[in-house]
Amino acid sequence: MIALDVPARDSGIGAGLTFALQWDMLVTDGVPAARLDRGSQAGTRFALAADWRMHVELVELKVQGVAVDHNQSPVVVLKDVSGDHQVEIWIGPAEAVAISMELEQRQPPRPMTHDLIRNIFNELSVKVARLIITDVQDNTYFARLMLVVNSDEKDIDCRPSDGIAIALRTEAPIFMPGELLSRIDQERKQREASFMVDSGGTVH
């Protein structure tokens, strides 16, 4: 059992608790190396002009798997390519199944919602350029799905869980602004320090 701090979720719940995740439920087996290494070169940081009118340094994230907390609530775990930063987002059961199935390369007998979206994109020659997890506000994550349609880039608002499920199916890279990643790390450390003080432990 490994204790992970709870920063937020894409459907929005209270944060500031420490949950113990059952890492035996973590989806890691059967993930092809090509999928883990998809996108840009490892360790590279990006300064890309996103359609949401910001010129910002973006850090590439990789999906590590799906775990559950002690309440059996699913969590998608992402890390930057250097392995120095980790992001946990609490998601819904349907999205957890969709992400897990793609990581395990399991095919449903009939297309599920995110499979259908991928198939529609393929038929219409729409390319998923990237997913950007743009912000977290009031314990809710926000994301933008960048599509290329007839050489034009479209910026679509989406939940991170749906965006991740689609990005995995289209082998599109996933990014987060470096400033946001640093803010998540700082808030995690503050909550950990507060937890240690409240429990009478030593803050290192």
Can you characterise this structure?
28% of the residues lie in helices and 37% in strands. The chain contains five helices and eleven strands. The protein has helices spanning 33-36, 93-103, 113-123, 160-170, 178-198; strands at residues 2-5, 8-9, 18-21, 45-50, 54-68, 74-80, 86-90, 127-137, 140-149, 152-158, 174-177. Strands 2, 4, 5, 6, 7, 8, 9, 10 and 11 form a nine-stranded mixed beta sheet that branches. The chain has a two-stranded antiparallel ribbon with strand order 1-3. The model is unreliable at 1-7 and 11-53 (pLDDT under 50).
Tags for this entry?
204 residues; alpha+beta; disordered N terminus
Topology, element by element:
Layout: E1 2-5, E2 8-9, E3 18-21, H1 33-36, E4 45-50, E5 54-68, E6 74-80, E7 86-90, H2 93-103, H3 113-123, E8 127-137, E9 140-149, E10 152-158, H4 160-170, E11 174-177, H5 178-198
Parallel strand pairs: 2-7, 8-11
Antiparallel strand pairs: 1-3, 4-5, 5-6, 5-11, 6-7, 8-9, 9-10
Helix pairs in contact: 2-4, 3-4
